[in-house]
Amino acid sequence: MSKSPIIIALDYSEEAQVWELLNKFNNEQLFVKVGMELYYSCGNSLLEKLKDKGHHIFLDLKLHDIPNTVARAMQSLARLDVDIVNVHAAGGRLMMEHALEGLDKGTSTGKRRPNCIAVTQLTSTSQEVMQEQLKINDKIEDVVVHYANIAKESGLEGVVSSPLEVPLVKEACGSSFLTVTPGIRLEGDSKDDQKRITTPAEARTLGSDFIVVGRSITASVDPLEALNTIKREWSESV
Ligand code: C5P
């Protein structure tokens, strides 16, 4: 089965909520994102059940710690046999290199090591927040490209960024460097806490490889219809 370019963010705390949503998609094999909220409450048993149903998994735990700790944590995560894991690029080159070493060590023979991607700047972070709170004075796009370059040099397969930054990332890191982009909203949806957003069609036109969609599907009155609209937008744009 080829992987869907649409990754559904399962931002829930209870397993029942997950199945209530997934049951609406007629047994379709999906690409889902399990983040901190769900993983911390439901753990590995839920991942096993999702894999048994044929779903692909992006385990979005955004590791950011000293290199040795990240290496050892990644060694454990590699055993879970998910498709994508991630770190914060702000942890630096050595931390990212150690993340990959840990993943290599933890991947069983005959299995594929999960892709490892780096969060550049959260799509909820604005230029003002970066300047006033993080004391980073460069333009947000320059920071994203700088982090993407370091992630690539460290051996990672790609980054998480806003779709708006994809052209710059691809130009700097090459077209095969993966871009996984949250901050997606259908026309007319609420922005919620996101700042740097696009529609699915715009994300594809900008060159995103995968879009991460949470509330535009999960908070929709008809999640199946929302997914189908997103698929249609995706396939009709280039
Ligand atoms: O509901 P919404 O579509 O905004 O959900 C976006 C998802 O992508 C959330 O799970 C959020 O944690 C995640 N994410 C993000 N921005 C990043 C990295 C991950 O919004 N830079």
Descriptive account of the structure:
- By secondary structure, the protein is an alpha/beta fold.
- The protein has a single domain (6-236), classed as Aldolase class I (TIM Barrel), CATH 3.20.20.
- Helix content is 44%, strand content 16%.
- The protein contains 10 helices and 8 strands.
- The protein has an 8-stranded parallel beta barrel, surrounded by 7 helices.
- Helix 6 packs parallel to helix 7 (166-173) and helix 8 (200-206) runs parallel beside helix 10.
- The longest helix is centred in the first third of the chain and has 17 residues, at 36-52.
- It is globular, with a radius of gyration of 17 Å.
- The chain binds cytidine-5'-monophosphate.
- Cytidine-5'-monophosphate (C5P) binds at residues 9, 11, 35, 119, 122-123, 160, 182-184, 192, 194, 212-216.
- Helicity range of the residues? 40-55%
**CATH H-level name... which superfamily?**
Aldolase class I
Name the beta content range.
15-25%
What do we call the CATH topology?
TIM Barrel
Shape: globular
State the assembly state of the protein chains: single chain
CATH class: Alpha Beta
How many extended strands? 8
Structural class: alpha/beta
Our measurement of the CA-to-CA distance between the termini, rounded to an integer number of angstroms, reads 22 Å
